[in-house]
Amino acid sequence: MSNLSTMYALGLDQIVDAIKAGGSKRTMLVQGHMGTGKSSLLTMLGRELPTHTMCYFDCTTKDLGDLTIPNIMGATETEGGYVTYMTNEELGAHIGGPIILMVDELGKANPAVQQGLGRALLEHKIGSYTLHPDSIVFATTNMGAEGVGDVMKAHLLNRLTVVQSRKPTAEEWVAWGINNNVHSTMLAWVKDNPQVLQSFEEVKNPEENPYIFHPQQQRRGFVTPRSLEAGSDWLHQRAQFDDTTLTALLMGTIGEQGAMSLMTHVKIGDQLPSLQSIKDDPMTAIVPTSASAVCMVVYRALSTMDRSWCDAWMDYLSRLDTEAQGLFANGVRAPKYSKQSVVMTNRKFTQWALANNYMFAADKK
Asked: CA 223 to CA 231: how far, in whole Å?
């Protein structure tokens, strides 16, 4: 992958906007790091285009005969005779209305399948079917440099608009995690260790970043956005097993280095006040002494906020330092924060915002 391609790698939101704008005319191939949410593009597009039917075609499970088969049962005797073909249901050609067709793992497909999909990718035609003119087709694949078997010939690539997707920044991933029930300890760890989302193209010597996948060093476990979410699921179940078991599970999910570092934050998390103590008496609930623990408290509040205890939280927030208050405010102001209306319509929050107007100065430039 060239330096220019890396420099102009796009975030998932940018890719969704591009596919929405031109995906009915041209097919985009999204090439990116493993575990970074490429497959989620279908769901993201589905939310943006509710009149379209989402169709998912997994190339890794298909052979050429899985694209179309002769319509034996529907055949009729005609002069001269001919054979008609039925298409695979996953391709969505039978739907008739507009669809969003995601051709996943195109680079890992059998070469015959790649060729068989060529017309669908270029002309939106599958066998004798033509997709609805508003239908969108796009494909995904891993980066060839990852060495996981993604290969395509030049004539197929020339039919596509190839873009590189980038890993999310730590800030972007934390904002996503707040809205998706990611454990507050994991959110705080990623915030404190943004290098866990670094791209291997930026790391010549794999020893410089022991947390991530690197093609020059085979690591059984490593950090990706996908494995971070999986690690969060284990953190949510922490009460079910001891710390040795939790450490082993995290090692098998995000790698040895990541697990050992994350467990230090797990220990810090023990300083956190319970949510119930904040709800019951925000003025006496424990205030953590470490910055990382305070960060966890704020992220937990953002993730679990509802109207019933927003007043209590604002009282508790007043006891935290200015940096923590700003962290909460910035989380509330994030464009996609799912509980934004709950907080911004709270009387105590609006009073706090007026009293701390300087925190919003950047918005007025």
From this structure: 10
Helix (H, G, I), strand (E, B) or coil at 146: helix
Residues contacting 352, CB < 8 A, separation 6+ = 314, 317, 318, 325
3-state secondary structure of 216: coil
Mean pLDDT confidence for 300-319: 96
pLDDT tens-digit map of 197-228: 999 988 889 999 999 999 888 888 999 999 99
The CA distance from 125 to 112, in Å, is 17
**Structural domains of the chain sorted by starting position, each given as residue range(s) with its CATH number in brackets:** 3-164 (3.40.50.300), 170-364 (no CATH)
CA–CA gap between residue 72 and residue 84 (Å, rounded): 8
pTM of the model: 0.86
CA–CA distance, 23 with 18 (Å, rounded to integer): 7
Residue 231 burial by Cβ neighbours in a 10 Å radius (0-12, 13-18, 19+): buried
Tell me the C-alpha distance between 340 and 332, whole Å.
Answer: 6
* Kind plus residue range of the DSSP H or E element containing 159: none
**What are the Cα distances from residue 301, in Å, to 158, 228, 269, 336?**
49, 20, 14, 16
